[in-house]
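== Folding the chain ==

***
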Amino acid sequence: MEKGLSGARMQDIANEAGINKALVHYYFRCKEKLFEVIFKEAASKLFPRIVAIVNEEIPLFDKIRNFTRQYLEVVIENPYLPMFVLNEMHKQPHAFHAKMFGNNPPDFSKLARQIDEEYQQGIIKAVNPAHLIMNMMSMCVFPFIGKPMIQEVMKIDDLQFRYLMEQRKTEIANFIIDSIKK
């Protein structure tokens, strides 16, 4: 996950796993098959959770809290996942989307209707659902993509960075909710 499909070599993978390269080839035959297994494992940790949260029949603020908490819990434990997903997604967007969600993509139109309903009820301000979704995703993803820069600028180590990410589980949700509630 750290180097992506094109950046990883089978020898590097074998070295990291503490086994010989022949064993990696025996079980996976090629880097592409190994990549598929690794991606499916990584995706299975995150994407079903996202789909479930988007489809939940709960108030929007709870959905925002659940999304940020669940997303960050997975990514804190798998910090290379966002960069891995972004790199692979840009290579083949349509194929990647199918690999991520299969036949069960999140129904963002349902979320957009919920946002509109909560606006009509006077719970939230008028907000473009696309911007709300992009704001939540970018606030969760960017710190992991920009981690080296963030650590350098803020003069923090890995432990301090992790502590900040733990705080973001609630900070992001509170920020988003405060920006849209009436």
